[in-house]
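User: My notes are a mess, but here's the protein and S-adenosylmethionine's SMILES. Can you give me a structure?
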Amino acid sequence: MNKRQKSKNLASLSKTPTKELIEKIILKKEFSQLPEKDVEIAFSHFDKPQYLDEEKIKLTRDLLRKVFSVFTSKKLLKIKDKSEEFILKKHLSTKERYEFYDEIYKKLLYDFQGKINIIDLGAGVNGFSYDFFNKLNKKVNYLGVEAMGQLVEFMNYYFKKKKIKGEAVHMSLFELEEIKSLIKKQEHPKIIFLFKTLDSLEMLERNYSKKLLEAVTPLVKMVAISFATRSLVSKKRFVVKRNWILNFIKSNFDVLDDFEIGNERYIVFCKTI
Ligand SMILES: C[S@@+](CC[C@H](N)C(=O)[O-])C[C@H]1O[C@@H](n2cnc3c(N)ncnc32)[C@H](O)[C@@H]1O
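Assistant: No problem, the inputs look usable. Here's the predicted complex:
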């Protein structure tokens, strides 16, 4: 399609209703398997009279890219039968965690004997780290919740092939009632991982992290959240200290641990007893 045809097509969008614009947004393959809810929230930021329809499409896609696809190499979605190490090193979040998995899981799961049920919210490809649980002799039922359908399929393919007690589900963390009922269905003891995902949620809805933590923490034995302490892209140390969420956690829950390993800070807490 040449430039003129393209702008003609976009101009013809000017009166299309929201649903049609959302359909246009998800025509891009990288967004094609995102939950509708997340695309709608992203779109709502730009569904304003000052924007033309083509601007709304572009700005929504830019935001969705920042929240979802920036961490995932396109190659990752095409490969299937590579080693866990290869895959974990192809995703920006797990790449920098790779050499510390032993240490991190040892610290987080130290107090747990017997079967542990891990619910990994905004899992990315973290399910591919399952072997590190085996190395520590921890018996884990792993449930990953992830918005990018491609990553969900990818993890489920791996779990099946390796006969791992794991499952990934395609769900938005903004579907709070569904998330709560999913967590309630899991057996005890339950641990929630929320690694490097709160920032993504905040980009779509400010203060949603608090709402999510308030809703899910009482349902489980322990929650472990993490933040990158350096930019995943430029590697520069973040100046922001994230006191807003740390203060919220300290005043609403019991903090069990707070440590930094690699370029990631972990805060572990549970409901107040
Ligand atoms: C920075 S990555 C972290 C991945 C993983 N937790 C880790 O640390 O290895 C954030 C992940 O959260 C997912 N995510 C963001 N918003 C989400 C939402 N509303 N519902 C479900 N997953 C979401 C993204 O698709 C992405 O895989």
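The first helix runs from residue 3 to 11.
User: Great, I'll file this with my notes.
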